[in-house]
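Narrative progress, year one. The postdoctoral researcher (J.K.) led the effort to move from monomer predictions toward full complexes, under supervision of the PI. The following entry was the first complex the group processed end to end, covering 742 residues in total.
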Amino acid sequence: MRHILSVLMENEPGALSRVVGLFSQRGYNIDTLNVAPTDDLTLSRLTLTTHGSDQVIEQITKHLNKLIDVIKVVDLIEGSHIERELMLVKVKANEAQRAEINHCIDIFRGQVVDVNVNAYTLQLVGSSDKLDAFLEAINYADILELVRSGVSGLARGEKILKV
Amino acid sequence: MELFSGGEIVVRALKDVGVKHIWGYPGGAALHIYDALFQQEDVQHILVRHEQGAVHAADGYSRATGDVGTVLVTSGPGATNAITGIATAYMDSIPMVVISGQVPRDKIGGDAFQETDMVGISRPIVKHSFLVMDASEIAGVIAKAFYIARTGRPGPVIVDIPKDVTAPHHRIPYEYPEKIKIRSYHPTTKGHGGQVKRAIKTLLAAKRPIIYSGGGVVLGDASPQLTELTRLLNIPITNTLMGLGAFPGTDPQFLGMLGMHGTVEANNAMHEADVILAVGARFDDRVTNTPSKFCPSAKIIHIDVDPTSISKIVTIDVPIVGDCGTILQQMIDQINDNKEILDQEALSQWWMQINEWREQYGIYTQPRHEPSAGDVIKPQDVIRSLYKVTGGDAWVTSDVGQHQMFAAQYYLFDKPRRWINSGGLGTMGFGLPAAMGVQLAYPSGIVACVTGEGSIQMCIQELSTCLQYGFPIKIISLNNQALGMVRQWQDMQYSGRYSSSLYEDSLPDFVKLTEAYGHVGMRVSNFDELDDKMSECFSLKDRLVFMDINVDRSEHVYPMHIAPNGSMRDMWLSKKERT
């Protein structure tokens, strides 16, 4: 099953490599990974998606907590939560294709963020499923380049991760 | 205000954290620190002959005393040579701080002379690591490194310091932190009250209980509590290779070691148990045999300071995270308060069953070898002789292989921190340098290094260190002219094809070699001279003695788990018999 692990950690050099190293060292999977400093610049918030049995996820969570730089770990899947991923897609878009693509990006509530004679760059934000669905919907288009941020998310309501 | 260089701060912080000895080897990037060491007397530096030896020696020192072992090496090859020792300490959770020199800050990443990314290459085998980028951070980082190394589940911590950070011309005030606070690090000590209650209830409901305790009890200095609880309830107990000595080896409640080369009575009792109390043990593959067949009818209670150890290999019914000693004491207090005991009739039947196994299979009750004069020496008899001559009261370090297993089986340790071996990583070459660490900690103690002619050659250069510092270690080398454990597996699984396990024509004359290093060498070839030579060896109190003992080449270590797909109780008893 897919899990979203949200990790609050020290914003220290080497901290990220410890997290990534843990996964490769113990044979766990990272499907997506997203990390940036928080409003408190001494802290980083890292979100990763992974999959595995309950036993594997429990071990991953415990191992993450064991890292000295890690302050808190939560699996967002365990409660109601908001998850978002940003995708930028550069597609071939000549006169004939533009209307169709415009229509599609509107339905998915995305935007065209760059235009040139032959290409559109599209921006889409949403759950990973929504991004997948969009790619499915424009499968007729010629994708030149694609970049996804990986998932980040927060628990709903007043639940927060803090020091 | 008095000002200090970075190098001086390193040494002063070591002193303030309580370090008396540091093992190491100098080199370019560490020279400022070495210069500071030269100019003081609080921290004694011991010069080894190879960095691996420094780390094993600090490790042995730590295992014998409980203090944090401390190492100083230079960058590049100094750092990489330390890696095997660091991995050894990591696998056995030994508290250690390794300070490594690094190339100057402005050269990092430029492939400078003797540059290696120490923090990077050591990452999977350390508890934590620091790269110190400013002299003002040194004291605080060293204080934190020692705190992290010795608290929670202990382990090695690296402090990598670029050369220019320790430079003599840059001088700053010295500030040692009064209190250490790490907001992301809070190891659990006390056991959860509800879980402790559940554990007691489960344990007291048992009809066939057993205690399975490991190295965590030794590391947590919880031997008194373990012994008290075990005796209070009259429960049989077995120890892992790392846990030997945590419960007295000569106590009738002790069933011997469990696992791959454990006793049949210990492994049978585990397999048949209805409740297992696991304390500071980690269900290692050398213990469990096939995990899916592990102890099918047992409810398992697991006390461990590291939550990741719980349900890692085997699913645990009652986990308790925290310090072993604290939790065992919580259990003792509650059992005493409630005056509850086990079902005594069931327990007495259980003991009858265990004693039957002991009668039938016990390696202690039934000596297999009845030697006659002039007979070839069985390796087991060397350990028996060592035990007799040292009165069972030596510190015994070992290398890795058959000799290690024979020592674990036949030397009965009554005290913790007496049996010092590389259990997790299984590092050949560990024994001699580890013995140096023990001897430094206990200068008048009897320290024996049980080894083989294979393992000893992996760190034999340390004989020179032993002469320089006068370590009167007794090296008991079981010479079977082959890599014995490899050979045993080749006998059992590869139809006796001894692929690269033989070297009998090229072995050195160990007696002459030892003499060349300035020590005493002795050779023993016949059984009838074994005890006398052993006594003579230990009578030379101030000298290092190397006993090159020619033992039976064909001997295998038994009992031995039948693998793969065997359970705890499936064991070879000899080359042909099995349980």
